[in-house]
Amino acid sequence: MKIKRLNIIITLGFIAIIGILIAQLIWARQAYNLEDKKFNQKVNIALMEVAEKLSGGKSSFTESPVQNIANDYYVVNINNEFHPVVLEYYLKTEFTRLQINTDYVYALYNCHSDKMIYGKYMTTHQEQPSNKVINFPKHKNLIYYFSIRFPDKATYLISSLRFWYLLTFALIIILLVYVYSIYTIIQQKKFSELQRDFINNMTHEFKTPLSSILLASEALNKQDMVKENTKLQTYTSIIINQSYKLNSHIEKILNLARNDASGMSLKLQKIILLPFIQDIADAIQQKDEGLTIHIEIDSSTSIMADEFHFTNIIYNILDNSIKYCEVKPTIVISSYKDSKGVYLKFKDNGIGIPSKNISHIFEKFYRVNTKRSEEVNGFGLGLFYVKKIVQEHNWKISVENNADKGITTTLFFPF
Asked: What pLDDT sits at residue 364?
């Protein structure tokens, strides 16, 4: 079901981004066409004004003197003789007034021969023209017209729409990142499934021979020969204890794999902290006579939690405090309240954790690389399991080194 939901989300997200990108491209195209139309209108208005002034201010045109021959090419008929310097001045004036800030080329033609008499390239970056005399052929009873072309019109329009194109480019980048992210997620999901299947198969394969070892060692421990021999009894006890410990690790791995695959189901109930933790502490102290646990919890303090998983949290925290202690373990369990919730603290006298490693201790299979860690058996799953249960309950957990020795683990239960 989760895979189907993930595929649906991926597909919908991909369709949404493609749709947005197509819409953006359409909008960009429409914006370009609108800007092109606006540019043409401004050029037509400017050239009409120029034609009006060159004709002596007398509107004797029966039709528009401005003809748009091509997308960037215009021809203007003038019913009067004019000088190129005057034309250039009027073009500059009108283009500046209408904010047409792009390069252009103008040329003057003889109406009878259609030959170009004079032409000049005008750029927005060039200096003011000098007052030198320009030779211009004059003929009696001869009408002249001029043409104008905008060679960089497309570039000018695109630069005026750079926001749209930047937005489109950003959307393309987002689409590529999305596709790459989806590809990475799918690959990671495949690796995760392979890892989970491997762990499940491996642990199941371990369970069968381990069960046989436990049955055989327990049966062996009941034999009269073993009971009478202290050394044999010690050896069988070691086999049984280590087998149970290994079985506990395997169960932990199986539970994590099962919860990853199907999700965790919590059965919340009211738990009074003092008797609950006292029972766990008593059970642990029976196994380790050198352990000292001080409990400083108010008898009325209670929380809502899943009893099974909360028990495992307490066991894991206390077990770590015992394993990573080089002297006689002493653990102080205390609690207090504030306006936000209940705090449960576990303070030990262990070896502590290097500051650079504290942020990683809740990661799966992570173990701090110390001499003590090499001596202690484990898979680095205990605190990962604790963190997972804490998150499922919407609690918080933190670990800090004590000023003198050891660490303090704090569980926070919000009201």
From this structure: 75
CA 223-225-231 angle, 5° bins: 105
> Residue 103 in contact with residue 150, Cβ under 8 Å?
yes
Type of residue at 58: K
pLDDT at res. 1: 46
Please give the pLDDT value at position 32: 82
Which SS3 state, helix, strand or coil, does residue 143 take?
coil
pLDDT of 347: 92
Q: Could you tell me which residues are beta bridge partners of residue 105?
A: 121, 149
Beta bridge partners of 334: 296, 345
The residues pairing with 77 across neighbouring beta strands, listed in sequence order, are 145
pLDDT at 411: 93
What residue ranges in 111-249 does DSSP mark as E strands? Answer: 116-122, 144-149
Residue 371 is predicted with a pLDDT of 63
> Are 58 and 208 spatial neighbours (Cβ–Cβ below 8 Å)?
no
Give the closest residue to 237 by CA, choosing from 248, 226, 247, 228.
Answer: 226
Q: Which residues of the chain have pLDDT under 50?
A: 1, 129-142
Instruction: Report angle CA 133, 135, 136 to the nearest 5 degrees.
Output: 125
CB atoms within 10 A of CB 348: 25
pLDDT of residue 181: 81
Which residues are bridge partners to 116 per DSSP?
109
One-letter amino acid for residue 221 of the chain: N
Q: Are the C-beta atoms of 93 and 49 separated by less than 8 Å?
A: no
Alpha helical stretches, state H, 55-125 = 84-97
Residues 6+ apart with CB under 8 A from 336: 342, 343
Name the pairing type of β-strands 330-337 and 292-296: parallel
70: alpha, beta or left, given left = phi > 0 and alpha = psi -120 to 50?
beta
pTM of the predicted model over 0.85? no
CA distance 406 to 400: 9
Provide the sign of the torsion angle of the four alpha carbons 72, 78, 84, 86, taken in this order.
negative
Q: How many CB atoms lie within 10 A of CB 299?
A: 9
Question: Hey, which residues does 292 pair with through a beta bridge?
Answer: 330
- The token pair at 313 is 């949290």
Tokens of 183: 């590809």
